[in-house]
């Protein structure tokens, strides 16, 4: 029994093709690059608190007020690399 295009009754696991994973990663990289632009245009903030504060504060201590910008650029670059890897690995099939 077929439930949707991505899910069937036997496995009920969300399966994506490599091309769809590449598009997902490219969307995520767009979000990170948008956060980098917003961080560049905003005023410097105080040290973060919360679950991922250790990563945020690490970049702030290493790079000063532009730590947010560099963090989001690194995350955006890594997700863009993952997007290109996923997208082009699925194009040969």
What's the structural blueprint in terms of helices and strands?
Elements: H1 18-41, H2 53-63, H3 67-89
Helix pairs in contact: 1-3, 2-3
Class per helix and strand makeup? mainly alpha
Anisotropy-based shape:
elongated
| Unreliable segments of 5+ consecutive residues | none
The tally of helices reads: 3
Number of strands: 0
What Rg do the Cα atoms give?
18 Å
Question: Could you tell me the mean pLDDT?
Answer: 84
Query: How much helix is in the residues?
Result: 55-70%
List the secondary-structure elements in sequence, H or E: HHH
N→C terminal distance: 26 Å
Strand content: under 5%
Biggest sheet layout? none
Provide a brief overview of the structure.
The chain is mainly α. 62% of the residues lie in helices and 0% in strands.
């Amino acid at each position: 029994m077929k439930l949707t295009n991505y899910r069937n009754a036997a496995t009920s696991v969300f399966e994506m093709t490599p091309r769809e994973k590449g598009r997902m990663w490219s969307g995520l990289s767009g979000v990170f690059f948008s956060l980098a632009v917003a961080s560049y245009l905003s005023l410097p903030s105080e040290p973060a608190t919360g679950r991922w504060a250790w990563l945020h504060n690490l970049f702030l201590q290493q790079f000063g007020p532009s730590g947010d910008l560099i963090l989001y650029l690194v995350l955006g670059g890594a997700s863009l690399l993952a997007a290109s890897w996923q997208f082009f690995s699925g194009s040969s099939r």
